[in-house]
Design a protein that fits this description.
By secondary structure, the protein is an alpha+beta fold. It contains ten helices and nine strands. The strands form two sheets. Strands 1, 2, 3, 4, 5, 6 and 7 form a seven-stranded mixed beta sheet that branches. It has a two-stranded antiparallel ribbon with strand order 8-9. The chain binds 3-thiaglutaryl-CoA and flavin-adenine dinucleotide.
């Protein structure tokens, strides 16, 4: 295939600042030069290319949106564009960065003590430490409020027992942000993964997100100091605030994957000859490209407006739910269509559409499934709570 040509039908580029374009282009080039040569092998072998973490850190994308100490700060739109470009490479790459920044650094920054911040934020920012976020349990995914993981007071500290499942970065992590019930209330704990009684077991056998580490965490009488808890935040509001940040990045990210699939199908159609003509000359093929580009363009504009609202502190979780739901649904449809348009070659791993398609099945599920975001929006529109 030829060089990647990012679709931008409505000149969204013209709505960006020079700095935003520069950040996007830096990450776009890095993905082309450094990540794309590795991804096929990583996906086949089911590994995350950890050797690239220092380079991600060097680009300032780990917690790049946080206003902390001397971290260079990315604006919300620039951060979204970074997610778009990373996921153009692979959802696993964006997932790594999302979890580190939005689900580990963000809660420590927002809810942590000065000591927790000083201990973890610089190391997570420079990539010398990796974090994971434990909310989902084997029996509580969409309904995290029912979680069983429990902390009890023990002298001046706490003892943690329970299990988390489907945890991105789990086996690579030095620190886990774990949500558990203390006296019946959901609280957040900063747990070093070398604490006795903490185990992480990699979940193999995934058809999706193969270039990402996913793990089950178990806590057996893990002793934590009094300084391990987030002191103020109580209830689902804590983890859900982090999910707002991560869902924001996903809405941008999956459109990067869709852009890659569209570009692959467009280029393939121009060079693949059937019935004596390029397949892109057939009307049905063209109609598919039109649908794909239309949905990409609408999502690009929605994401951009969401980002501008976030910069003005005007974004609500409902804006983010709509963008996450819309982007994941359409990105997955686009990836499926692109796979089909490549014929048999579409199932070969030298092409990327099927890899994106398989990844997007997970991304549509995690951080709130399509159905859950439908019901979040339905509750907002009607005032009637379908979860109650
Ligand atoms: P509900 O009654 O709605 O709310 C309970 C409390 O939370 C507050 N709240 C929020 N706060 C901040 N942001 C939001 N988006 C919030 N939504 C609700 C709410 O105000 C209330 O606060 P308070 O102080 O009054 O108590 O709770 P519910 O039990 O009815 O559940 C709501 C529901 C279903 C929407 C929620 O539980 C949900 O979103 N479920 C989906 C679970 C989910 O998204 N899990 C993601 C796990 S992490 C992950 O997947 C990482 S993948 C990472 C990667 O690899 O990229
Ligand atoms: P369930 O909640 O059992 O849902 C099953 C089906 O039922 C879905 O179609 C759902 O939409 C539907 N459903 C559920 N409730 C309703 C309802 N009220 N009305 C209508 N339909 C409903 N979690 C973390 O905490 N940290 C991570 O780092 C993390 N990384 C992940 C990485 C991967 C690769 C994957 C696949 C998942 C990850 N998750 C993580 C977990 C993810 O957030 C959950 O899988 C997700 O929240 C859905 O929960 P569940 O799988 O238990 O599905």
């Amino acid at each position: 295939m030829g060089k990647y040509e990012a679709p931008d039908f409505y000149d969204v580029d013209g709505l960006l600042t020079e700095e935003e374009r520069m950040v996007r282009d830096t990450v776009r080039d890095w993905v082309s030069d450094r990540y794309m040569p590795l991804v096929e092998k990583a996906y086949r072998e089911g590994t995350f290319p950890r050797e690239l973490v220092p380079e991600l850190a060097e680009m300032g994308v780990l917690g790049g949106n946080l206003d902390y100490a001397d971290f260079p700060r990315l604006g919300s739109v620039a951060y979204g564009l970074v997610m778009q470009e990373l996921e153009r490479g692979d959802s696993g790459l964006r997932s790594f960065v999302s979890v580190q920044g939005a689900l580990v650094m963000y809660p420590i920054w927002r809810f942590g003590t000065d000591e927790q911040k000083a201990r973890w934020l610089p190391a997570l920012h420079d990539g010398s430490a990796v974090g994971c976020f434990g909310l989902t349990e084997p029996d509580h995914g969409s309904d995290p409020g029912g979680m069983k993981t429990k902390a009890v007071k023990d002298g001046h500290g706490y003892v943690l027992n329970g299990a988390k499942m489907w945890i991105t970065n789990g086996n690579m992590a030095d620190v886990a942000v774990v949500w558990a019930k203390l006296d019946g209330d959901i609280r957040g704990f900063v747990v070093p993964t070398d604490a006795p009684g903490f185990t992480a077991t990699e979940q193999r056998g995934k058809h999706s997100l193969r270039a990402s580490v996913t793990s089950e965490l178990a806590f057996q009488d893990v002793k934590l100091g009094a300084d391990a808890i987030f002191p103020e935040v109580t209830g689902l509001r804590g983890p859900l605030s982090c999910l707002n940040q991560a869902r924001y990045g996903i809405a941008w990210g999956v459109i990067g994957a869709a852009m890659a699939c569209y570009d692959e199908a467009r280029q393939y159609g121009a060079s693949r000859i059937q019935f004596g003509k390029p397949i892109a000359s057939f009307q049905l093929y063209q109609a598919k490209l039109v649908e794909m580009l239309s949905e990409i363009t609408k999502a690009q504009l929605l994401n951009l407006q969401m980002g501008r609202l976030k910069e003005q502190d005007k974004v609500s979780p409902f804006h983010i739910s709509m963008a996450k739901r819309n982007a994941c649904y359409n990105a997955l449809e686009i990836a499926r269509e692109a796979r089909d348009m490549l014929g048999a070659n579409g199932v070969a791993d030298e092409y990327q559409s099927m890899r994106h398609m398989c990844n997007l099945e997970s991304v549509k599920t995690y951080e709130g499934t399509h159905d859950i975001h439908t019901l979040i929006l339905g509750r907002q529109i009607t005032g009637i709570d379908a979860f109650a």
